[in-house]
Amino acid sequence: MATIIVLTNQKGGVGKTTTSTALAAGLVSFYHKKVLAIDLDPQGNMGFSLGLDIEDGRTIHDVMTGRTSAREAIQETDYCDVITSNILLSSAELDFNFSDRELLLKKSLAPVAADYDFIIIDTPPALNILTVNAYAMANYLIIPMAPEILSLLAVTQIKETIDSVRESLNPHLDVLGILLTKYNPRTVLAREVKEMAENIAAQIGTCVFDTQIRSSVSVAEAPAHGLSIFDYAPRAKPSEDYMSFIKEIRIMMRTKTLQEVR
């Protein structure tokens, strides 16, 4: 059964989609894992970043409304399999108005989950029914955040949703860590936000990743070419940082697995 990792933050512009695509591509390219990437953001940026036409083919909205199966919606890319999204998903709150709607994604993906080592889910910048669906099936959450006060505030607001999902839907939901993106260690603000993020991480039973993702124009350019950051700019600082980040994730997950066995 796949390990399910959800990238989440209700604040936009924090590098959530960039991190999702880098994680998916890195697990395939460097560790030869079989990965399914799911785009739950109506903007559809994840599929676009991996080189797909998000207006062509079936989407996660079609899967969750029962118009097609998860297997039929899967598209192949040079990096991983993807189920795309588009603007139709923005009507999710109205479309999914029945009982057990929080488990709709989990039930929809159940037939394909065993085919993959990892499922990476990119969520919208909101705490809505789509986000709750992702949390309900996740093994791990990763919270990307930029070193800004508003981004920090958004992380504090996630705690209530995490607690609610743990109580009612997914008691084993584990927050793997907070990832600082667009990071410049030379600025006072970045260092101060990092310290505050560590305090918040302690409150939700997690940590701030040792790796920070530094800024570079290559991060913004790569999606336009449908390439991962590793292929577009392999020597850029974010490429080095994301490689370190993925290594750190794998070490943390192995440690947690060993602790559970004991």
UniProtKB/TrEMBL annotation:
Family annotation (SUPFAM superfamilies): P-loop containing nucleoside triphosphate hydrolases
UniProt catalytic activity: ATP + H2O = ADP + phosphate + H(+)
Entry-linked InterPro entries: AAA_dom, DNA_Partitioning_ATPase, P-loop_NTPase
Top-level taxon: Bacteria
Known partners and oligomeric status: Dimerizes in the presence of ATP but not ADP; ATP-binding is required for double-stranded (ds)DNA-binding. Interacts with DnaA.
Family to which this protein belongs: Belongs to the ParA family.
Protein name: Sporulation initiation inhibitor protein Soj
